[in-house]
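Deliverable D5.2: sample structural annotation.
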Amino acid sequence: MTASPDGLPPLTGLTPARLDWRHDDSGEITPRSSTFDDVYFSRHDGRAETEHVFIGGNRLVERLTEWQLARPFVIAETGFGSGLNMLCAWACFDANAPAKARLHLVSTEKYPMHRDDLTRSLAAWPELAEQAAVLIRQWPELISGVHRLWLDQRVTLDLHFGDTVERLELLDGKVDAWFLDGFAPAKNPEMWRDALYNVMARRSRSNATFATFTCAGIVKRGLKAAGFNWRKQPGFGRKREMLAGEISTPPEDTCRHATPWFVPAPARHTQRVAVIGAGIAGTSVAWSLARRGVEVDLYDQQGPGAGASGNPQGALYAKLAADTNYHSRCYLTGLLHSQRWLHEIDRQHQLWSPCGVLQLANSPREAQRQQRFIAHHPLPESLVAECTSQQAEQKAGVSVDTGGLDYPLAGWVRPAALCQHLASLPGINLVRATVLALEQKADSWTLHLRDTEPQGSERLAYADQVVIATATQINRFTQTAHLPIQTVRGQISCYEAQHTEPTLQRVLCANGYVVPALNGQLTFGATFSPNDSSTELRQQDHTANLEELERLLPSYVKTLRDNGNTVDASKLTGRASLRAASPDKSPFAGPVPDAQAWQRDYASLGKDASQVPDSARHSPPAMHSGLWVSTAHGSRGLSSAPLCAELIASRLCDEPLPLEAPLVDHLHPGRRIIRDLIKRR
């Protein structure tokens, strides 16, 4: 497939690895790639080879033992394969690194294994069984993109599924050590090419090392031309020689010369971060930072989950555009990210349910849109699949009148309970207070507070950096007043059913949505009222929600009534809250620009958007240093906020990012300033 109109590689399901299980030289059965006619490893001595070539070739025992930096040590690999190399790197880290050190693993894979094949492959190493189980449990769907896995409290793995060179070109992050792996150059020449070595050089930190099993001349010449110094070392087993080396001064990374306003500021030392807002955006940021050992003060006047995140249930899903765009890519990655994240923090499903979501085609126009989406996105059915009305009825457990799209990995979440859970974790200090103003002083921030208890007392607090996650209240700070936020009021309705048969099995959505009952309470809605800031319950909104439910599930509502339930708007309870939306419906997540400076420095874009001022290429963009936002998540915050939290925490802690660079830029809080300058607004 060719690249999509948004400039990224196609959003698609990937061809899985085709394995042929054969006896190796030692008589053991090992996996062999049918595509490349080459082995993944030798079961007899595969781990020993990995430790000799990649662990030893990169001097990891010595380097990890001495690692004292606050940022993680970053290892990148060209070809994940069975995961053996990454598990060995993890084991080496556990055995040698100081207690406060962290490890970040990045690996590309064009032909990922199915989970069953991965399980069978890693069974060859019982000494790695505990680590392998964590990897297998979180193994993602086989679709292109970035998939973040949390291997343990100190170790993160980012799987970049797709062509190696493409994925490294899109990587936003720097590398300390390279595992230059993959099938032999003669078997897989498409990977072992100059473009690979060049992008490795641009993604390297100063003095980054590499190691590889091959001594092929084409590899030596390519590495040297890209700036790597190489040397031959004794190989492993029957391989007489291997290569290892380093790059002392990597070339300048010019990928953002055309968009210098998105160049990230250098990371700075951080011990304490203030997070303002304890909804799902703020508490997920707090979790991401606390997991990295950062001390977090979480400020909220009312406590966790009091605003738009306070609903008893919320749908976890993403409505994707028929034609691929940045918005859909961000939300699909976010949905999959949230699903893995929730499973890791709540394996007993006390806070969420992966029951699936049915997006019903409730009109000919919507049916046509869904068909176009399926035609343009060859994604695995385990992620999204067309279903007839009969199939939809079987999945939903109740009578439905139309088919639609089924998202088996989606579901529902208890947002208020989730926020309370996250805010209670170690390393997070919840402060009941209103932040009145922010003041930057040198390399720190002063917060002007009004405490909730005792009522009205004012004081100052301090932090190295600040993350604002206050949704519709984002504009009340001077530094973020320029963000174009629209307030959208939404009211949900709740019904206490005496008899809930038949039982709804999936979240159903069209113009509205309904969630499977929790403790006998059915939640549905929600109204959509832009530029309305009232949180008072309205009877007419309950009526509108009930009418929408009857349009969505007429037979279900009739059955409820036939079973003795009085389904009437006057019997409904509910909740009204305010959501924040951006003009392009994507969140704002990242560092906060100095709006006045940007309007001055990039003013020439209004005359010619193709000509970037020379001064802008050679000076960093003006930012409010150490100030970040996560806002404008709209009604899909459960699918976007945890991913945006990881994005901010990764940038703040100087790590590779969990999204491709163009998507990082798409979420940047300064994007609207640039767009308005170009449009002369």
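Annotation notes: The chain has a mean pLDDT of 92. The two ends are 37 Å apart (CA to CA).
The annotation will be released with the project's public dataset once the embargo ends.
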